[in-house]
Automatic annotation (TrEMBL):
It holds the Pfam family Aldo_ket_red. This is Aldo/keto reductase. InterPro entries: AKR, NAD(P)_OxRdtase_dom_sf, NADP_OxRdtase_dom. GO terms for molecular function: oxidoreductase activity. GO terms for cellular component: cytosol. Residues 19-325 form the NADP-dependent oxidoreductase domain. Gene3D superfamilies: NADP-dependent oxidoreductase domain.
Length: 338
């Protein structure tokens, strides 16, 4: 696959490259990245032909948006697609009073959930200021799943489907943004969201991967039927599909359980037989689904970025995917790359 190849979104007409730039790492998740390294990452991504960048107010409490805007500012605005998110407002506060977890050295703002109509309108204005760009292409309602809200998920979902969705659909109809949707960690929530509102796209993190294909049960077929584009994040299941089944492997940001480790070992066995890098299989597999136009792996260094670019280009024989299905390591109804 060519990571710089573009696919057109059927509803909005937006064009995104197969490989996008997930900008959570430049928000200093878990550990800091210098301004110089952040700028170098965006420059290297642009030089490689990447033309889709995804950020959010949450990432580094505004730091990721600020760095994205700075890194992209002098490139032609009509040559790339930018997405950000709504659902959190940032308020100035002393650093010593802010819990930045899991971000390190974020900007001096505390975050407050706000899925109201007015809150979303304010959020878009604030994001434009932090980005210092003239427009946003894609706006996503962020984190309305139980992964974020636990027992309050139904309440937050309802607020988002009424207030936030109404605001974003109005902004889309007025041409302020070109596409709107939700960004979540659970496909079931995304499934309900597109039943409730006329969304163009969804960002799904970690729930359709080489390890997990339950999203084929209704959700992805509905996306295909309604021509809803799915941005795929978390394609490594937070680590294990990049590192393999090593003792320190992470799955869903925690230590991988034995059942997951064993399944990955079996996938790795097929990878060895066909000389296919596990990372290449993970990145390329998801893009075979017709509803998924782009995959946005996060990177912390230029070396990681270049490794992902090479991983996208790796040649994978059709027999490899057939063997995974024969051993029941991926679902029989899962589309695979041609």
């Amino acid at each position: 696959m060519n990571p710089a190849e573009k696919r057109t979104w059927p509803r909005s007409g937006l064009e995104t490259t197969l490989m996008g730039f997930g900008a959570a790492p430049i928000g200093n998740i878990f550990r800091p990245i210098t301004e110089e390294d952040s700028a170098a990452l965006i420059k290297a991504a642009w030089g490689a032909g990447v033309r889709y960048f995804d950020t959010a107010p949450m990432y580094g409490h505004g730091l990721s948006e600020a760095r994205c805007g700075q890194g992209l500012r002098w490139y032609p605005r009509d040559q790339y697609v930018l997405s950000t998110k709504v659902g959190r407002l940032l308020k100035p506060r002393k650093r010593a009073e802010i819990d930045f977890t899991p971000w390190v050295d974020g900007l001096p703002f505390e975050m407050k959930f706000d899925y109201s109509y007015d809150g979303v309108m304010r959020s878009i204005e604030d994001s434009l200021q932090r980005l210092a760009l003239e427009h946003i292409d894609i706006a996503l309602i962020h984190d309305i799943d139980s992964y974020t809200h636990e027992d309050r998920q139904p309440e937050m979902f309802e607020a988002a489907m009424s207030g936030a969705a109404k605001a974003l659909l109005k902004l889309r109809d007025e041409g302020v943004v070109k596409a709107v949707g939700v960004g979540v960690n659970e496909w079931q929530v995304a499934h309900e969201a597109i039943k409730c509102n006329d969304f163009d796209c969804l960002l799904l993190a970690g729930r359709y991967t080489l390890l997990e294909q339950d999203a084929l049960d209704g959700f992805l077929p509905l996306c295909e039927e309604r021509q809803v584009s799915v941005i795929l994040g978390g394609g490594y299941n937070s680590g294990i599909l990049a590192t393999g089944a090593v003792p320190s492997a992470k799955y869903n940001y925690s230590a991988a359980p034995d059942t997951v480790l064993e399944r990955v070992r079996k996938i790795e066995e097929v990878c060895r037989e066909y000389s296919v890098p596990l990372k290449a299989a993970a990145l390329q597999f998801v893009l075979a689904h017709p509803a998924i136009p782009t995959n946005i792996p996060g990177v912390r260094t230029v070396a990681q970025l270049e490794d992902n670019l090479q991983t996208f280009r790796a040649q994978i024989p059709s027999a490899f995917w057939a063997e995974l299905k024969r051993r029941e390591l991926i679902r029989q109804d899962a589309p695979t790359p041609q």
